[in-house]
Amino acid sequence: MAFRLKSKSDYQEAYKASIENPENFWEEIASHYTWQKPWTKVFESDFEKPDVKWFLNAKLNITENCLDRHLKERGDKIALIWEPNNPKDAVKKYTYKQLHAEVCKFANVLKARGIKKGDRVCLYMPMIPELSFAVLACARIGAIHSVVFAGFSASSLADRINDASANTVITSDAMNRGAKKMDVKGIIDEALTKCTTVEHVIVVNHLNEKTNMQSGRDVWYHEAVAKVNENCPAESMDSEDMLFILYTSGSTGKPKGVVHTCGGYMVYAGYSFTNVFQCDENDIYWCTADIGWITGHTYIIYGPLLAGATTMMFEGIPTWPDAGRFWDVVDKHQVNIFYTAPTAIRSLMAKGLEFVEPYKLSSLKVLGTVGEPINVEAWEWYNEYIGKKNCPIVDTWWQTETGGIMITALAGISDLKASYAGQPMPGVQLALLDADGKEIEGDDVEGYLCIKHAWPSMIRTTYGDHERCKNVYFSNYNGYYFTGDGARREKDNMYRIIGRVDDVINVSGHRFGTAEIENAINEHDEVVESAVVGYPHDIKGQGIYAFVICNKEHSNDVETRKEILATVSEYIGKIAKPDKIQFVSGLPKTRSGKIMRRILRKVAEGDVSNLGDTTTLLDPSIVDELKEGVV
Ligand code: PRX
Q1: 255-273 pLDDT per residue, tens
Q2: Are residues 89 and 26 part of one domain?
């Protein structure tokens, strides 16, 4: 079987082979890479514990496969293009040789501070080349990176640093966001007042901002890097050693640290990138995600570099200097493969075609989307005005926990259907389950989306709390990994993702647990209790609707509303601010005290004509109040 699938029959054969004999299938895929020592067994899998291992006892370093492996054949090829926030500023480009040198230097800066294999390093940075260097530098020396999206607040950052007991933070002085300049180091300083484990803070001077440096702890990257050389041997990692932690929200508790390991993640990241995007040697590939999310990890850094591709990272935002920025960048760099989120498509669509028309977009060959369901209207706009009806759209379904794309079309190979993610990747064994945990067979059926066989890049644990991993993903249905999504299956194994079936809200492709937002709202002095639900939002996919009960002293709705938004910004970050707040005197609770979220969702959707059975409510009169107060 070839590593790269090129036709429908290749897909079918590979899919069949992957189910009939997963060992052989994955062994062939894995042998595409450079291993310091081969595996003794392809996988071991127990979904009960859970305990999953891939490529047992093999040794490798992912950066040798991302960088060193390419030096002979494509050392002078551009590996990384950096497009700055301001289109007038200089673009930066790094060949594979140069990127290799930058990563080795960054790794030596870490080593010079005593940072070593197994240490946790938190990265809180804007989208600048040093972020990619730092991620790969950690992997080079075997330190475990935990990238935190630079939109999270100091409080969220502190939680993540503490959960991982990170001893090092890598950051920058400040960051650009369109026309705005934002503080970064100040947020680090604030977060670190709540952290005791951090000994080293490495600060990249990005914008020459006046920056407070704490002596003994903080060091400028440009000063440290001047003292090291560009040779750094790659640490030998066991296939099951941790590669990174990435925090994500679930339906309960605080965000959890999803753990990925070296060997399996590498194999799946490279395999899925090559096959989904069908990236050719001279293609320019651009994924617009932030490296603070899994999409940036797998499909800006690791996947493309494993494939020896040219990957671009973009510092800016889609709407600055105007809503044509994405298309300007596509033309400027002659981008061939473009991967973005439905929310970005919808927001640019709303700005009008005058921002698209000035651009040729003739270099584009493949379009992709990720993060949330794409509605038919947005799919068609993307297809017609961006792809000029000439580019396959791969609608890729996956999760932080899956490490790589699981359901998708293969560009130019698979049949496409708007709003359908498509078929499982070869190697991915899906199942739809009913509420009793029975597998639903056949076509034209809907159920809870589960995965019934281990795949190499699956979550291994939630950092420091294995029970939680078991409870969240492996306990709902025995023997299955539960995704938290509902899905529909049609003929030819075509899947359509319906959305989350748990208390997770997907806002512009960002995941939040309702409990997480409620906890933040409840921090406000006047708030007694709150309940948060998602509601359909034209641009964001889902918006956040909060029902809030305040105490007696509550006097001014307008002020309290503002303060609640500020509280959520403080505890989580601006990205989690509720879109709507309705003040209420009570919540619809059953006699056993459980909030009937079904009713709240209907109210938030503005669909109050039929709220279903409300007779089990402790106080049914609350429903009329809710209906009358809809925001
Ligand atoms: O609900 C699904 C939705 O995003 C969730 C995963 O979120 P996260 O871990 O943040 O990863 C996002 C990027 C991989 C899923 O459970 N989701 C992701 N991609 C799609 C999607 N929903 C529909 N269609 C997609 N293509």
Answers
A1: 999 999 999 999 999 999 9
A2: no
